[in-house]
Amino acid sequence: LSPEEYVKDYLVNLGVIHAVAGFDFTYGSRGIGNLERLKNDSGGIIDVTKVEKEACRGDKISSTSIRERLVAGNVEELPDFLGCSYEVEGMWDGQFFKLNPYYTLPAPGRYTVTIKIGNFSKLTEVIVEEKSIKPVSELPLYIFGELSIVWHQRISEEAPSSRPILKVGGLTL
């Protein structure tokens, strides 16, 4: 679609009256539409706010740069990009952990993490293998409910395979 058609068909028809987007946002065929022309392409209906570029260590802060660090296992860099440590949430029933589906696990390896359930928190180590997480030491079995794992640092890329395994929903802990 041309930029004008895109704005008419997707933004104006959806009732958008104000768009907030990054400095490098583009739309329409070949991405030739940009925030500078959005107000004009909408016939003056849509006001625009541009979010300026934010950078860290010379890289643009974006969802892509954050995912790249997760895939590489560089969780210790994420606080600078997110403003806090990376944290995933799920449900713990004392035996099984079900990670909420919209979270991404970091690359396989051994990590220092904090496991939090309510007022309980435990600094520990976990091993990530494919789509599973295994604690290096046993977790108290009496805890249950909402659980979060705060990722601090990757200790090693290789995970020893001779660790105890707990079954956790679709994951293995």
Uncertain runs: 162-168
- SS content category: alpha+beta
Largest pleated sheet: 6 strands, antiparallel
| Global geometry | elongated
Rg from C-alpha positions? 22 Å
Task: Kindly report the average pLDDT value.
Answer: 85
Q: Between the first and last Cα atoms, what is the distance in angstroms?
A: 48 Å
Total number of beta strands? 14
Give the strand order of the largest sheet, numbering strands 1, 2, ... along the chain: 8-7-12-9-10-11
- Quickly count the helices: 4
Strand content: 35-45%
The succession of helices and strands, N to C, reads HEEEHEEEHHEEEEEEEE
Amount of helix: 10-25%
Your description of this structure?
A hairpin with a 2-residue loop joins strand 13 (167-168) and strand 14. 21% of the residues are buried. The radius of gyration is 22 Å and the shape is elongated. It starts with a helix and ends with a strand. The strands form 5 sheets. Strands 8-7-12-9-10-11 form a 6-stranded antiparallel beta sheet. A two-stranded parallel sheet has the order 1-4. A two-stranded antiparallel ribbon has the order 2-3. It has helices at residues 3-12, 35-41, 63-72, 78-82, and strands spanning 18-22, 26-27, 33-34, 47-51, 55-56, 59-60, 86-92, 97-99, 109-117, 120-129, 132-135, 145-156, 167-168, 171-172. The chain has 173 residues and is of the alpha+beta class.
Describe the protein's topology.
Layout: H1 3-12, E1 18-22, E2 26-27, E3 33-34, H2 35-41, E4 47-51, E5 55-56, E6 59-60, H3 63-72, H4 78-82, E7 86-92, E8 97-99, E9 109-117, E10 120-129, E11 132-135, E12 145-156, E13 167-168, E14 171-172
